[in-house]
From TrEMBL:
Residues 1-42, 130-157 are annotated as: Disordered. It comes from Clonostachys chloroleuca. It comes from the Eukaryota. This is Uncharacterized protein. Residues 24-36 have a biased composition (Pro residues). The lineage of its organism: Eukaryota, Fungi, Dikarya, Ascomycota, Pezizomycotina.
């Protein structure tokens, strides 16, 4: 559907007295211009500040290891992981779970998945869960020590 455009030729037409426009109050001031939007800060590439090339490489290795294993270890909620294992030990099959002395083949995803789903790792994670619960329970059961040693003394008036 098209609309017809209306063209008015007002040339020479007397539109009346326009002095009323001179008596209008001034327009309100324009609102202040908002500041430009801040640029979204990008997430840091590295979690640590690197000082030299060797440190940079080490940080990249740790991040790569963590990124690679994330999908394989998400079910191990209570296990702690050591991302700082030297690359030689890692390539030799040292497991990234702290406290465990087991071997894994890091170059085959199927073997890695099977390794972290093993009974040994599931039992370890359960042991770490119980340990965390026991520590939390002990923290709740422990009375808070007094802030000042003088609080133990009985004051006689």
């Amino acid at each position: 559907m098209s609309h017809r455009r209306l063209n008015y030729n007002l040339e020479g037409v007397d539109l009346g007295d326009d002095t009323w426009m001179n008596n209008l109050p001034p327009p309100p001031p324009l609102p202040p211009t908002p500041p430009p939007p801040k640029e979204k800060e990008s997430e840091p590439v590295y979690k640590i500040i690197v000082k030299d090339e060797a440190e940079c490489l080490k940080a990249q290795e740790e991040e790569a290891r963590e990124s690679y294993f994330k999908g394989f270890i998400s079910h191990l909620k209570y296990s702690e992981f050591d991302w700082t294992i030297p690359i030689k030990e890692f390539k030799a099959g040292k497991c990234i779970v702290k406290g465990m002395d087991c071997q894994l083949t890091p170059n085959m995803a199927k073997n890695v998945r099977r390794h972290f789903l093993s009974k040994q790792h599931m039992n370890w994670d359960e042991k770490m869960r119980q340990k965390a619960e026991d520590e939390a329970k002990m923290a709740v059961d422990q009375p808070n020590p007094p802030a000042n040693a003088n609080d133990y003394q009985t004051k006689v008036w």
